[in-house]
Write a structure and sequence with these properties.
The complex is a heterodimer of chains A (300) and B (620). Chain A has 300 residues and is an alpha/beta fold. Chain A has seven helices and ten strands. In chain A, β1, α2 and β2 form a beta-alpha-beta unit. Chain B is 24% helix and 28% strand. Classes of the chains: A alpha/beta (300), B alpha/beta (620).
């Protein structure tokens, strides 16, 4: 490596740390939206680096609109304890009570509707002026035009007219009372960057991401998880070695067949799978093809 | 595949940020799609976002695409090229290492392609790839390609772009995008992707001037105190003596802390935490530098300002200026001119509207440590925020020759000074000298053929200026060629050096407040634009003293044409050496149609209009 040159991962890391520090310095009351997903694991790890040897100067906020997943919550609590950050769990009763009735809606809608609403309530209740999240532009086309600082007006809306032009790395943090900024420090990270960074930095991610035997029902392309063990006998239900490429609400999550039990093996699967699909020329920073059919979750 | 090899390679590969500029008509979406497809990239973004069009919730017109090859990782920042999207282009170009400008071969060079190149050069992009697309429509004609290259090069000569590459391609057919095309056998260069994978950009980084804007002070148990920030430029080492600006307090670097372990040194753009030997009081917005290499610390900067808001500029009203990690109040106190980018033409202006670009003076209410943008993008850039709407309304790039009037030795107790107060003990500045003479230094550069009337006009102008009580001086062949430049002949390189020296002398005169009338043939455009750069754009008036060569030859005051015709003078401009007429002179005289007095009047009117001959009041 050339002298005084940063690799892609180090460049992305530097950019993210700069943004996280800016937020801590320029906002009165920021919070980090912790979703327990892998992108948030990276985000949390970047936040730790940004303030080392000091502590992360803002709390983590978990918008919990899911039904109880004990192992997810254990993982979350352990991470927060290790990092020494305060955790605010916002269990939105309203959202939770609506959950069942939304079961039949598409994953996109139920997830995004519940989460956005719950987030707005939490922001309002706690008076947060900045919410740091793990959104990435590469995740899907609709995100490709997102700002690093997205402005939310006093009604919680993110109108495109309200967005500020982001020139150089001079982010505009000026807002009025009641308005807030949604910050995405890892905007420029691609799926493979995330996994490679998790591997490089040995970042703990939820067990959900790794392969083990799970009860599922296959459809055309994916494996639909069955959480209720009593349904083991239903038509088409099988036990398969699989992992979840994204960790989102169970309604939105599907599993893929996999033997990967480490970040390294997941990268290997992603790259090999892509190579077999696209020929040998390129490898790179791309999403896990397995989530192609399941990328509609709307992480906020 | 070998996963370890893959991981290792990926761990070392660099990131290239590309600004992609063009319209859907030029085939931009097709090209991006082609790059992603043919580079065998997994299609992570199924369809390339439509040009601008329906802007989605919480977005601007800028779209980001990601792909990689075994050699490099790429981010394409995709922005529309139309004039109304200037601000999007500025956004995309501001962080790019390289720009791809799309030109439609079947249409040739358009005003818009020139405009785009100008904005990219303004934003300091040193590598431009001109992708001459739709070569399939013009039958892969080398001639068409060469014509576009030629025209574009001529235009770009006026811009500061280090590296321009022209690539003939067809995004639709895939020619020269990833692989070299058989249809353009005459093209010996690389394909677009090959170029992107190999272009050397590391040299663009400033590793000389150490600048470290403090983002935040970090304190933790056991009395730890450090300053968090990103190294903007330069290298800092443990043990280095550093100075905190604006307080000018000096200390030594004790530790460079990161979670990956303490570092011996840090370079751009590493985020680190710096601990100092002494307990000095600094905070966010302060800047650490090496005491022997300091930025300018001023209350006033001169800058190129791009207006991004529908709401026009309110001159002399207070805005927030965000520069590195510091936000201060400031106002645009003076507009010199605005630029019509397509012809690089300077126009007088008294306002600034959406997408307009002007040269302006920004008055700050607190001093900022800054460098010229050309030298340091991080410390040479700022955004302007409207305090009423909180919107980002402008982007500014600081120019080298700034208003140094208030370049102060700043001590701790300094408060913002009004413009006519001069601190004791400071250096004597240009403005001081100008005030003494009650005028501003300016270079009036007369260019034209021999016999066009430069000397006549020049000396008449001098007479009129002296009569008005102005201190001025004519530089011409007679007083320069026989002394200062007597070692120079008339070859292009000697002519160039001749002009360079004259420009430097003009600058010295101007700095002492004297008006200079430079009267030289100065046949080459590039030399004159070099002279403009030396003298300073804001005080350089190019006057084209124009008359048809027949008229000049007829006048032939020094009988030079006659000699040249007889072959006694080699390289005589207009006969055996070229004269490149100015494309956009500030003043264009036709001495075959105007009298000497009328010519001088024209110059006078212009000088007055741009404010050089108003009575210069130090309290203005």
């Amino acid at each position: 490596m050339e002298r005084y040159r940063l690799s892609t991962l180090k460049t992305l890391e530097a950019e993210s740390i700069y943004i996280i520090r800016e937020v801590a310095a320029e906002f009165q009351n920021p919070a980090l939206l912790y979703s327990v997903g892998k992108d948030c694991s990276v985000l949390a790890s970047l936040a730790r680096k940004a303030f080392y040897p000091g502590k992360i100067p803002f709390p983590f906020l978990h918008i919990d609109t899911t039904r109880k997943f004990p192992d997810m919550h254990d993982f979350r609590d352990r991470i927060c304890k290790e990092m020494g950050v305060g955790l605010i769990v916002h269990e939105d009763d309203n959202a939770l009570s609506q959950e069942t009735s939304l079961d039949d809606l598409s994953g996109v809608r139920c997830h995004s509707a519940l989460k956005t609403e719950a987030l707005l309530t939490a922001i309002h209740e706690h008076g947060f002026d900045a919410a740091i999240g793990g959104a990435r532009r590469e995740e899907e086309e609709s995100r490709s035009k997102k700002c690093v600082y997205s402005f939310r007006d006093q009604f919680g809306q993110m109108e495109s007219e309200g967005q500020r032009h982001e020139i150089w790395n001079l982010y505009n943090s000026r807002i009025n009372q009641g308005e807030s900024i949604q910050v995405s420090p890892i905007s420029n990270w691609a799926e493979l960057d995330i996994w490679h960074y998790i591997h490089m930095e040995s970042i703990p991610v939820a067990p959900f991401y790794f392969a083990r035997e799970r009860l599922v029902k296959p459809d055309d392309t994916n494996l639909i998880p069955i959480y209720d063990q009593t349904q083991a006998g239903i038509d088409g239900a099988i036990t398969a070695l699989c992992r979840f490429p994204t960790l989102e609400r169970r309604y939105c999550a599907v599993a893929v067949r996999s033997e990967a039990v480490s970040a390294r093996q997941i990268i290997e699967e992603i790259v090999t799978r892509r190579r077999s699909e696209t020929g040998a020329r390129t490898a790179g920073r791309h999403r896990d093809p397995s989530i192609e059919n399941n990328k509609k979750e709307d992480r906020i | 595949m070998d996963i370890n090899k893959f991981l290792e390679r990926n761990l070392n590969s660099a990131l290239l940020r590309i600004s992609m500029v063009g319209n859907s008509d030029d085939g931009k979406s097709t090209l991006i799609g082609r790059l992603l497809d043919d580079a065998k990239v997994y299609e992570d973004q199924p369809k390339v976002a439509k040009d601008n069009g329906s802007s989605k919730e919480s977005s601007t017109g800028v779209a980001y695409h990601y792909f990689s090859t075994p050699k490099r990782n790429f981010i394409i920042v995709d922005t529309p090229g139309h004039e109304q999207y200037t601000r999007d282009m500025v956004t995309g170009a501001s962080t790019a290492d390289l720009a791809i400008v799309l030109v439609d071969a079947s249409k040739g060079l358009t005003t818009q392609s020139k405009r785009n190149a100008f904005i990219l050069s303004l934003l300091g992009i040193s590598h431009i790839v001109v992708a001459v697309n739709k070569m399939d429509i013009v039958d892969y004609s080398e001639e068409v390609f060469e014509k576009i290259c030629g025209e574009y090069s001529v235009f770009c000569d006026k811009l500061e772009v280090k590296n321009i590459k022209f690539i003939p391609l067809s995004a639709l057919k895939g020619d020269n995008v990833v692989n070299k095309s058989g249809d353009t056998a005459w093209y010996k260069g690389e394909s677009l992707l090959q170029h992107l994978e190999s272009v050397y950009t590391s040299g663009d980084k400033n590793v000389i001037d150490f600048r470290f804007p403090v983002q935040r002070v970090s304190r933790s148990g056991q009395g730890f105190k450090g300053f968090c920030g990103t190294v903007s430029s330069g290298i800092v080492r443990v043990g280095d003596e550093v100075m905190a600006l604006p307080a000018k307090k000096v200390s030594k670097v004790k530790r460079i802390v990161s979670l990956d372990g303490d570092l011996e040194y840090a370079f751009p753009v590493q985020p680190v935490t710096i601990c100092l030997d002494d307990e000095i009081d600094i905070g966010r917005g302060d800047m650490l530098v090496h005491p022997k290499n300091q930025p300018d610390l001023t209350y006033k900067v001169e800058a190129m300002v791009i207006w991004l808001s529908e709401e026009p500029l309110k001159q002399n009203e207070s805005y927030f200026i965000k520069h590195t990690t510091k936000t201060v109040r400031g106002c645009v106190s003076q507009l010199f001119y605005k630029i019509a980018p397509e012809g690089l033409h300077r126009q007088e202006t008294n306002g600034l509207k959406l997408n307009e670009i002007a040269r302006a003076t920004v008055q700050l209410f607190q001093p900022l440590p800054s460098d010229p943008y050309a030298r340091n993008k991080h410390t040479g850039s700022f955004i302007v925020i409207d305090p009423k709407t909180n919107r980002t309304v402008a982007a500014g790039m600081i120019i080298d020759r700034q208003a140094r009037r208030e370049q102060l030795e700043i001590g701790k107790d300094v408060t913002p000074v009004s413009r006519n107060i001069y601190l004791q003990g400071g250096k004597i500045e240009v403005a001081d000298r100008e005030n003494l003479l009650g005028q501003k230094g300016v270079t009036i550069w007369l260019t034209g053929l021999s016999g066009a009337g430069k000397s006549t006009v020049g000396f008449e102008l001098e007479k009129r200026l002296i009569a008005e009580g102005r201190a001025c001086y004519v530089l011409d062949g007679d007083n320069v060629r026989h002394g200062l430049n007597r070692d120079l002949g008339f070859s292009p390189s000697d002519r160039k050096e001749n002009i360079r020296r004259i420009a430097e002398v003009s600058r010295l005169f101007n700095n002492s407040g004297i008006i200079v009338i430079s009267s030289f043939i100065s046949p080459y455009r590039s030399d004159r634009s070099g002279a403009r750069d030396i003298a300073g754009d804001g005080r350089f008036v190019e006057v084209f003293v124009d008359a048809p060569i027949e008229v000049c030859e007829q006048r032939d005051p020094k009988k030079l044409y006659a000699k040249a015709r007889r072959g006694e003078i080699p390289e005589f401009t207009g006969i055996t050496a070229p004269y490149e007429a100015p494309e956009e002179p500030e003043v264009h005289l036709r001495t075959d149609l105007q009298s000497v007095d009328e010519s001088v009047d024209t110059i006078f009117t212009y000088l007055k209009a741009i404010g050089f001959l108003t009575n210069h009041d130090p309290d203005d």
